[in-house]
């Protein structure tokens, strides 16, 4: 048996053990009705499969074409040849994640995608960003429940290095999120935000050269 097959079996085993020891109840929320529901065995299996595929993506050198092919398997959807991702790339659930044409995700990003992540055309995501659609209730009695809300990053937005986008947030078209920001509220179109928590800095300036 080749080393590659042995490695893949080891990754599959380790991912299975992670899921078996995962004590949180995955609970999704319907954004229209507010109804909450606990994840099924099928959902847990999808999470395990996604972890296996992302581990494969992050092991050894992969060409851009190989990365895109793995991303197609992770998302279960077509990925345009203009989409670029630099591994390592960590994602726990890809079936509700979409990537628009010309979008780019740099090294070391983490997507917690159970709530749904929409990356529109031309989006830039810098290294070590976290896109987290998942969160826990404040009440200690229910804190082991995992809740979700979708995140949308609109056309041509730019997310700076080590920024964190929290559940339920929409980043507007052409917006810029400064490096290290933690975004907990929607960002309007053509706006720069920064800080913890992120606040508006100014509007995008048009037709000015970078200094």
What brief labels describe this structure?
211 residues; alpha/beta; UDP N-Acetylglucosamine Acyltransferase, domain 1; 3 helices; 20 strands; globular
Compact description:
By secondary structure, this protein is α/β, with parallel strands linked by helices. It is about 20% helix and about 25% strand. It has a single domain, classed as UDP N-Acetylglucosamine Acyltransferase, domain 1, CATH 2.160.10.
Chain-wise SSE layout:
Blueprint: H1 3-20, E1 25-29, E2 36-38, H2 41-57, H3 64-75, E3 84-85, E4 89-91, E5 97-99, E6 104-105, E7 109-112, E8 117-119, E9 124-125, E10 130-132, E11 134-135, E12 145-148, E13 151-153, E14 158-159, E15 164-165, E16 170-171, E17 176-177, E18 182-183, E19 191-194, E20 199-203
Parallel strand pairs: 1-12, 3-6, 4-7, 5-8, 6-9, 7-10, 8-13, 9-14, 10-15, 13-16, 14-17, 15-18, 17-19
Antiparallel strand pairs: 1-2, 11-12, 19-20
Helix pairs in contact: 1-2, 2-3
Any overview of this molecule?
The protein is an alpha/beta fold. Helices cover 22% and strands 27% of the residues. The chain is built from three helices and 20 strands. The strands form four sheets. A seven-stranded mixed sheet has the order 3-6-9-14-17-19-20. Strands 4-7-10-15-18 form a five-stranded parallel sheet. It has a four-stranded mixed sheet with strand order 2-1-12-11, with no helix packed on it. A hairpin with a 4-residue loop joins β19 and β20.
